[in-house]
Write a structure and sequence with these properties.
By secondary structure, this protein is an alpha+beta fold. It has three domains: 144 residues, 3-Layer(bba) Sandwich (D-tyrosyl-trna(Tyr) Deacylase, Chain: A), CATH 3.50.80.10; 288 residues, Bira Bifunctional Protein, Domain 2 (BirA Bifunctional Protein, domain 2); 114 residues, Anticodon-binding domain (Rossmann fold). The protein contains 16 helices and 28 strands. It has a ten-stranded mixed beta sheet. Strands 1, 2, 3, 4, 5 and 6 form a six-stranded mixed beta sheet that branches. Strands 25-24-26-27-28 form a five-stranded mixed beta sheet, with helices on both faces. Strand 7 and strand 8 form a beta hairpin. Helix 1 packs across helix 2, helix 5 packs across helix 12 and helix 6 runs antiparallel to helix 9. The radius of gyration is 28 Å and the shape is globular.
């Protein structure tokens, strides 16, 4: 069962049309209810009266915090694809209603089996939106259940305490911190505390990724898998190369490991239970295999077979996984924010002890900051920091956590856990808040105290004795797909402010477009584009039989950074008329000056030549 719980000022709904044969009787008139908790409820296969009773018990606990005793049970099938049969769903909904009434809740239920029009107003406090997932206890015979790790279950029920830590190290409950001047942090905190991940509308980056020809859904695959035509593949590959380049400079040794593993391998099976992710499971002959959801498995098995000395610590190992797989919830799969198959840079470091781990943690914090600043060209104003830790770790390492927040330089969201539900004791993420006020983690790092023992990873100390290292788990950028999502969402936000949307110059599929004013200047345009290409600038030529105005307009719609118009005047003067997207002006500049400017702006970044034919007349339309 899945329940989207909304503490509402009001809801008004009108039954419009019956959708199933067993639809309940109802009048086609508006029904309005004020000041109550709306439970958008989806009944799944295997749900029964026991699930109904547990669901209401969980809701009752939260109602005490919300100081409410009024609920509306609203049948809502859109939270899952694993639906119960209509008759079974209705039976469970009635059981919820009966139990809620029995424990003295003022209970309403909207009619089952109808398409309904509704509007509602949600209260503006952090706990107004919550997602509940209630699963049957045990497993019904003949009905295989989704394999869900113990960490997933624990994460869904963990009662965290939320704070804001300022750069002075003072810890304040979220509701007592003045967030009026920190709007993005306020949105981020509300999102994290509510734990509602489902998306109800299309985020702006989906429109942009299609418009720019970067990527699109692949309907011939499982949901959450994408196709990447040439332009998008170029952008994605450049980000992959940049992250790998920064990790190599940091000292990460790049490896490659399998994408599937034995579900019954003792170390792997135990680790799965401690990792909060859902798996894909496949069968091969008489074995069950799972698709990896991170590079941990292969890197840990490889580290187990590697002889490591204390002199070689921290031991840094890295893989760019194409792909990692997580069977995310269907309601959360919208665009590039949350996928089921994604490219994840994954870097682990084995450290001798906690002090070395904390020093390495700071080094990697700088690595992640560099990826945000130089790779995505984000400033600290573009993202928020979350630091999560157990109460025990905080009591023993408060100064270290304060130093992390001071290094970030902004108030930070803190999640204090009463106990560990996973393998880590400390974790941070850089989080991007998008235009729907949903947050997504980009760079992250964790201190793992379990897996060296689980995988029998050791190093030789000064006396030649075997010791267990601590393990740091870092993704320096987060998934590459999510980086593209964040870039496009930021561009849309800039556009809403009246700025010109664009990708960082080093990532632009075409950095410079040459437009001849007529056919007789195509050869000259071709020559200029070749000179730019030889100087590591992605340049193409619009030689199509269109008006110059339309060519310029299309270049602007493609977010081309520099548009060069070539005619007799430019040939005679040796000076180009360049439309500069960033400066929003037409500049007079020589070709060599333009090359120098672009090379300086993209210095130190990976380069790839055009992903499509140079001449636009030769290009297919993906």
């Amino acid at each position: 069962m899945r329940i989207l719980q909304l503490h509402s000022d009001f809801i008004e709904y009108t039954p419009i049309k019956k959708e199933v044969a067993i639809a309940e009787e109802a009048e086609k008139r508006p029904v309005r209810l004020n000041d109550l908790v709306v439970l958008f409820t989806c009944i799944e296969k295997g749900d029964d009266e026991a699930v109904a009773e547990r669901a209401i018990a969980e809701v009752k606990d939260s109602l005490e915090i919300l100081k409410s005793s009024r609920i509306l049970i609203y049948p809502y099938a859109h939270l899952s694809t694993d639906l119960a049969k209509p008759a079974e769903a209705l039976r469970v909904l009635k059981a919820m209603e009966k139990h809620a009434t029995h424990i003295s809740l003022q209970t309403y239920r909207s009619p089952f089996g109808w398409n309904k029009q509704f509007s509602l107003s949600i209260k503006g406090h952090p706990l107004a939106e919550q997602l509940r997932i209630i699963t049957p206890v045990g497993e019904k015979k003949g009905e295989p259940q989704e394999k869900v790790s113990e960490a997933v279950k624990a994460e869904e029920t963990m009662k965290s305490t939320w704070f804001i830590m300022d750069t002075d190290g003072k810890l304040r409950p979220v509701e007592k911190f003045n967030l009026k001047t920190h709007k993005m942090l306020e949105k981020f905190a509300h999102y994290e505390m509510a734990k509602v991940r489902a998306v109800q509308q299309t985020p702006p980056h989906v429109t942009l990724m299609k418009k720019l020809g970067l990527t699109d859904y692949e309907f011939g695959s499982d949901p959450g898998n994408f196709r990447w035509p040439p332009k998008g593949r170029l952008v994605k590959s450049l980000l992959e190369r940049f992250v790998t380049q920064t990790v190599n400079e940091y000292g990460g040794m790049e490896v490659e490991t399998p994408v599937m593993y034995d579900l019954n391998h003792p170390s792997l099976a135990a680790y799965i239970e401690r990792f909060p992710a859902r798996q894909y499971v496949v069968k091969s002959e008489n074995r069950e295999l799972f698709l990896r959801f991170a590079a941990c498995f292969g890197q840990f098995l490889m580290s187990h077979d590697t002889q490591i000395s204390y002199k070689q610590l921290p031991f840094r190992i890295y893989e760019l996984t194409r792909y990692s797989f997580r069977r995310e919830q269907s309601g959360e799969l919208v665009g590039l924010r949350r996928l089921r198959a994604f490219t994840m840079p994954d870097c682990h470091a084995m450290c001798a002890d906690l002090e070395q781990a904390k020093r390495e943690f700071m080094v990697r914090f700088d690595l992640c900051t560099r990826n945000m600043k130089e790779g995505l060209e984000f400033t600290p104003e573009d993202y928020e920091l979350a630091v999560r830790f157990t109460k025990e770790f905080y009591e023993e390492n408060r100064d270290f956590i304060v130093s992390l927040v001071k290094k970030f330089g902004k108030p930070t969201l803190i999640e204090l856990l009463p106990k560990r539900y996973s393998y880590w004791i400390l974790k941070y993420e850089f989080n991007f808040v998008d235009n729907l006020d949903k947050a997504s983690a980009l760079s992250t790092d964790q201190i793992d105290i379990e897996n060296a023992e689980r995988y029998d990873i050791s190093y030789d100390d000064e006396q030649g004795k075997k010791k267990r290292p601590l393990i740091l788990h870092c993704s320096p950028s987060g998934s590459i797909e999510r980086c593209v999502y964040a870039l496009l969402e930021k561009a849309y936000r800039e556009q809403q402010k009246g700025e010109v949307p664009m990708l960082p110059l080093w990532l632009a599929p075409t950095q410079a477009r040459v437009i001849p004013v007529s056919d007789k200047f195509v050869a000259e345009a071709d020559r200029i584009a070749d000179q730019l290409s030889e100087a590591c600038v992605r340049a193409d030529v619009d030689d199509r039989a269109l008006t110059m105005q339309k060519k310029v307009r299309e270049a602007e719609m493609e977010w081309i950074n520099y548009v060069l118009v070539i005619g007799q005047k430019e040939i005679d003067s040796g000076t180009l008329a360049v439309r500069d997207r960033e400066r929003k002006e037409i500049r007079k500049i020589s070709l060599q000056e333009l090359i120098k400017e672009i090379n300086e702006k993209t210095a130190g970044k990976p380069f790839r030549s055009l992903a499509l034919p140079k001449k636009l007349s030769s290009r297919p339309q993906f």
